[in-house]
Design a protein that fits this description.
Elements (H helix, E strand, L loop, with lengths): L16 H13 L5 E3 L4 H12 L8 H4 L5 E4 L3 H5 L16
Parallel strand pairs: 1-2
GO molecular function: DNA binding; DNA topoisomerase type II (double strand cut, ATP-hydrolyzing) activity
Organism: Aegilops tauschii subsp. strangulata (Goatgrass)
InterPro entries: Spo11/TopoVI_A, Spo11/TopoVI_A_sf, TOPRIM_Topo6A/Spo11
Amino acid sequence: MFDGFLLFTQGRGYPDIPTRRFLRYLVEQLHLPAYCLVDSDPYGFDILATYKFGSMQLAYDANVLRVPEIRWLGVFTSDFEEYCLPDCCQLQLSSEGH
């Protein structure tokens, strides 16, 4: 059972700078855990990687923008089998989808 509080934020797609700085602050100053729930596709993984490792465009600010402590909650590709999710919950990757 969860004994505490939960603070939820969402970046509405790729993480913007204020969201990344806010999350970094919560982890660093308030010692809160950070979790990431994204789609199970290359874009979702890219979003997770941007939070965790930072971005190439802002590499000079990585120390205040990245959150290496963030943990990936899912969605994992194995979840589709494990939870018997119907095929309509999955999208086929196209050549544009990596």
